[in-house]
Amino acid sequence: MHPWVIADTTGPGATRRYATRCLIPLIPILAGLLLIPGPWIIRTGMVLLLFLPFVYFLLALKNIYLRHRLVSHGLDPRRLNATKQRRLDQEQASYESRYRSAP
Questions:
Q1: What are 16-35's pLDDT values in tens digits?
Q2: Whole-angstrom Cα distance, residue 63 to residue 9?
Q3: In sequence order, which residues have a C-beta less than 8 Å from that of residue 1 and are 6 or more positions away?
Q4: Model pTM score
Q5: Which of 28, 38, 61, 102 is deepest in the core (most CB within 10 A)?
Q6: Torsion over CA: 26, 27, 29, 30 (sign)
């Protein structure tokens, strides 16, 4: 399962899959809050007071959770940033070849 875990945590769409896995269990709870009797503004406020901070911390802690998944499967956590580092290296090599070439 190691190739699947690597593709799931570092591949394209990893953030979308991570957010979907975390938000789906929250939907029934938020739907239940909308059924509480009272004015619609109160019900909407309750849902937003739970949903907005949840999404904020979900995205803020994404790298920590994905790194934990890699470590718990016995994989190198540096793989999480490998794609980003490869892109930065390509940009740096392109910059250096364009502007720092030897005269």
A1: 999 999 999 999 999 999 99
A2: 9
A3: 73
A4: 0.71
A5: 61
A6: positive
